[in-house]
Structure to design on (438 residues):
């Protein structure tokens, strides 16, 4: 990461959108995995996870489009992007709208672990005392926000899938 | 999904790492923080008592005004709206100037004793002072002005060489009527009566308020045989010169005065 304020802001943005997904994923996979009597429910909730991830990625794309509003030219955008690889990696989450990809929740978790490891890196740096403790505090605030955002996206997708499945049953 | 189920430990690790992150970043906002400051200003005053006595040289219990290291400064906006026009008075003293003392003195030193004052650091009700300036000794650094038009503007007589004029027409006298603690600083609030004839037909009294600062006592040349004590008082106030019949528009209505008085016990 470039040592600039704007790069740090972009890192926080990425953390705010994506870092909480791995925790949500871990919790749901563990609980769904222990649900012996609800295989269908388990499958449904687990397969909804990539969709909620794609929704968060789409929201992130919306934020970036809003940030660069009225300056959509490579000459204007390029200097304003400090974490291009991470941003592109985050935007790749939109691909989980594609049916063939969304059937593989493990892939979304693997994709998301990149952002989780940013958090882990800051924790390790704080343990070695080479970084200000406020950075981890900020990271964890973003982590909490991200978890809530991903949880909200997940609940929204669950509700939508519930409505869609009810309609399908009705029209069958 | 089998892969993930087999990696339950990995998932638990994610949760544990997240938990560690929250613990490590704990801001301790639940700690009881000290109560905020009350905003009360704590002022520590000493118990110094300074009295003039009879100005006996060598009596260290008697404090003398150090005329050569003191000053009375005035300032007012030039042409009522411009920058400050400033000056000082060359002749001044600390005496109430009773009616019998108001005369022409053939002297170059202090014409009367500077003994009309007392200062109690912690008991301002006992403090008082009276002071005067000789109006015709204003010094702005422009002799032509100081000995010329200025005298007409303030109604002061010309200087007679070798004399000091303490007559009503040439002196402004202030005398305190009340000195009290300033609750917002280590200084004092002073209420005074200012007495001056100016361009009026008779002496005119007006009440003015000012602030008094005490510069703590210190010892000069400590450890030597010639050591002596010193302290300072600074008085700031302003008055409306129109109250005394001054009509010139060279200066503003409001005149600021600063008196810097140094005392020693030599």
């Amino acid at each position: 990461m470039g040592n600039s304020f704007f790069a740090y802001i972009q890192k926080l943005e990425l953390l705010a959108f994506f870092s909480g997904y791995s925790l949500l994923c871990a919790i749901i996979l563990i609980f769904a995995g222990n649900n012996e009597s609800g295989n269908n429910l388990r499958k449904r909730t687990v397969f909804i996870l990539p969709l909620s991830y794609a929704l968060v990625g789409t929201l992130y794309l919306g934020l970036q489009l809003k940030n660069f509003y009225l300056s959509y030219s490579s000459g204007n955008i390029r200097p304003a992007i400090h974490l291009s690889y991470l941003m592109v990696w985050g935007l790749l989450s939109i691909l989980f709208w594609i049916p063939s990809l969304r059937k593989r929740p493990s892939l979304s978790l693997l994709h998301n672990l990149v952002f989780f490891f940013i958090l882990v890196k800051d924790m390790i740096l704080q343990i070695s005392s080479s970084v200000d403790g406020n950075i981890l505090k900020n990271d964890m605030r973003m982590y909490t926000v991200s978890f809530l955002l991903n949880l909200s996206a997940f609940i929204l997708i669950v509700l939508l899938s519930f409505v869609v499945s009810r309609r399908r049953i009705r029209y069958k | 999904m089998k892969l993930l189920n087999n990696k339950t430990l990995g998932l638990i690790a994610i949760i544990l790492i997240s938990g560690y992150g929250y613990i490590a970043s704990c801001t301790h906002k639940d700690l009881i923080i000290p109560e905020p400051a009350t905003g009360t200003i704590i002022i520590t005053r000493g118990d110094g008592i300074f009295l003039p006595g009879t100005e006996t040289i060598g009596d260290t219990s008697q404090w003398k005004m150090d005329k050569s290291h003191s000053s009375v400064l005035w300032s007012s906006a030039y042409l009522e709206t411009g920058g400050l026009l400033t000056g000082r008075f060359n002749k001044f003293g600390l005496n109430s100037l009773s009616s019998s003392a108001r005369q022409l003195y053939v002297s170059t030193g202090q014409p009367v004793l500077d003994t009309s004052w007392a200062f109690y650091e912690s008991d301002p009700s006992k403090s008082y002072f009276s002071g005067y300036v000789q109006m015709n000794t204003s010094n702005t650094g422009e002799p032509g002005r100081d000995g010329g038009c200025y005298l007409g503007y303030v109604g002061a007589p010309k200087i007679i060489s070798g004399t000091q004029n303490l007559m009503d027409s040439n002196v402004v006298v202030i005398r305190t009527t009340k000195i009290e603690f300033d609750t917002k600083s280590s200084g004092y609030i002073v209420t005074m009566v200012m007495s001056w004839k100016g361009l009026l037909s008779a002496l005119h009294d007006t009440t003015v308020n000012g602030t008094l600062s005490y510069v703590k006592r210190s010892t000069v040349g400590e450890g030597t045989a010639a050591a002596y004590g010193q302290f300072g008082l600074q008085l700031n106030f302003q008055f409306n010169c129109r109250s005394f019949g001054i009509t010139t528009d060279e200066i503003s209505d409001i005149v600021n005065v600063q008196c810097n008085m140094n005392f020693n016990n030599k």
